[in-house]
Structures are given as structure tokens and as C-alpha cells.
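A.,

Following up on our hallway conversation. C-alpha cells first:
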């Protein structure tokens, strides 16, 4: 929420780097990300007077960005060919577990610390951002739509024209890859 010392323009300008980073992650196209963020900022400035304070200002602006990204993805969806992620992940997944379904001793997840403290740590978010960028395009797109944008599986499937089964497989692979990457970058 704005305070007496900051104008709406200053609040929105301060959010711009985060908005651009998120849009680039989702759209994987710098020009499209810049255009989408610009549209978001214009909308936020035009509608700033309607911001009721029912959520954090940043959350409100990110909600606008989410809708702008979805509009763009729906428009592009018919022109983007979906590629299947590499199938070698199934073998990698099998190697994580014993025959009885328990974790292999060397692949068992490591504790990351207290969740609330981790989520407030800026270094953790930098590692997560880096790990998200390292994901294959399709995997990152599905994961961010689900976990960061809060879309349901049917909504994701409609926008990206994929099956629910494919969506769940992609989400599972994304979580495994992110866990591995975060453990290397955060816990190392």
C-alpha cells in the first residue's frame, strides 16, 4: 500500500525489475516480456485509484502481470510448437529410489532449514530464480503457471494445449530438477 512518502509512480517503478524478471521467465522472450511489463505498468498506473488495499500492492501489480502474461500465452499458444522434455528423466527418477520405494541413502532430500526463514532469505530467492531459468522452457512455463501464478491444471492445459497427464509429468520433473538445483546452490 502506498505511503505518504512514495507516489504510485515510485512504487510501480520499484517493482519493474521483479516484474521483468518474472515475465522473462514465463515468456522466454525479452521483447515480449518488456512489452507485457509495459502493459502491466500502464494498467497499474491507470487503475491505481481502484486499488483497495485488500492485498499487498506488489501482489496486486503481479496479479495484473499474471493476467497480461496469460493473455499473451493464449494468443501465442496456437503458434508455439510444444516439445517433449527429454525422456531420460524416467531413468533418473528410478535411480533415486530403492526397490521398496524408499529413498536411496545418497539421494534423500536434505533439510533446507526452517521454511519461514528460508522464504525470507533473499539469497534463497536468487538461487530459486537461477534454478528456474535453468529449467527447459516448457518445464519452467508449466511450473511457474502452477506454483507462482496459481493456475489450476485444467487452466494450464487449456492455455498450453497439453493433456493433464502431460502437465502432471512436467510438474513432477520440474520439482525434481528444482530440488536438485536448489540443493546444489543453496545447501552447498
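Then the amino acids I'd put at each of the 188 positions:
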Amino acid at each position: 500500500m502506498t505511503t505518504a512518502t512514495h507516489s504510485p509512480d515510485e512504487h510501480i517503478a520499484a517493482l519493474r525489475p521483479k516484474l521483468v524478471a518474472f515475465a522473462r521467465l514465463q515468456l522466454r522472450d525479452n521483447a515480449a516480456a518488456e512489452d507485457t511489463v509495459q502493459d502491466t505498468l500502464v494498467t497499474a498506473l491507470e487503475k491505481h485509484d481502484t486499488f483497495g488495499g485488500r492485498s499487498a500492492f506488489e501482489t496486486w501489480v503481479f496479479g495484473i502481470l499474471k493476467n497480461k502474461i496469460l493473455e499473451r500465452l493464449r494468443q501465442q499458444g496456437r503458434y508455439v510448437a510444444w516439445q517433449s522434455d527429454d525422456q531420460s528423466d524416467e531413468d533418473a527418477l528410478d535411480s533415486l529410489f530403492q526397490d521398496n520405494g524408499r529413498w536411496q541413502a545418497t539421494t534423500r532430500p536434505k533439510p533446507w532449514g526452517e521454511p519461514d526463514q528460508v522464504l525470507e532469505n533473499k539469497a534463497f530467492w536468487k538461487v530459486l530464480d537461477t534454478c528456474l531459468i535453468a529449467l527447459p522452457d516448457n518445464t519452467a512455463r508449466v511450473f511457474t503457471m502452477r506454483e507462482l501464478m496459481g493456475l489450476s491444471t485444467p487452466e494450464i492445459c487449456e492455455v498450453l494445449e497439453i493433456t493433464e497427464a502431460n502437465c502432471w509429468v512436467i510438474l513432477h520433473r520440474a520439482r525434481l530438477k528444482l530440488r536438485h538445483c536448489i540443493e546444489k546452490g543453496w545447501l552447498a
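Residues 78-87 have pLDDT under 50 and may be disordered. Curious whether your intuition agrees with the design.

B.
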